[in-house]
Amino acid sequence: MLTSKQISQHRGRRVRIHLARKSKGRPRLSVFRSGRHIYAQVIDDARQSTLAAASSLEKGLKGQLKTGCDKTAAAEVGKLVAERAVAAGVMQVVFDRGRYLYHGRVKALADAAREGGLSF
Predict the structure, then answer these.
(1) What is the pLDDT of residue 22?
(2) Residue 62: what pLDDT?
(3) Which of 8, 29, 68, 84 has the fewest other C-beta atoms within 10 Å?
(4) CA distance linking residue 50 with residue 48, whole number of Å
């Protein structure tokens, strides 16, 4: 019998396999969600480098956010990562939700990134 950790890891691998097939060379917007914070990175897998990153631990965001683990924090991180990605010349990405459902904080981050100028 598989543990919940193994199931979660398998789901994450499965999502990334599907993304690799459909990405067509575009960088991916990867999301990591912990119990206290949320992180986002725009990653170019061909060069194995991070093009832009943001998290709820940023000095500018941490002071104005009530907590790092709610939808408003996720939306602010989404806006910030989109702003940095556009500044780096990235307009189209593939959204990598990882092992998380597209709901709540993950959805809020994705919507804010779209509003910030990224298309996926």
Answers:
(1) 86
(2) 84
(3) 8
(4) 7
Please give the single-letter amino acid code of residue 36. R
72-86 pLDDT, tens digit per residue, is 999 999 999 999 999
* Helix ranges, 1-120 (H): 4-22, 59-64, 71-87, 105-115
4-115 has which CATH code? Answer: 3.30.420.100
Q: With bands split at pLDDT 50, 70 and 90, how would you rate the model's confidence at 91? A: very high
C-alpha 12: how far from chain center: 13
Q: What is the mean pLDDT of residues 95-113?
A: 96
CA 28 – CA 50 distance, rounded (Å): 10
Bridge partners for 92 per DSSP: 119
Collapse the DSSP code of 24 into the 3-class scheme (helix H, G, I; strand E, B; otherwise coil) and give the result.
coil
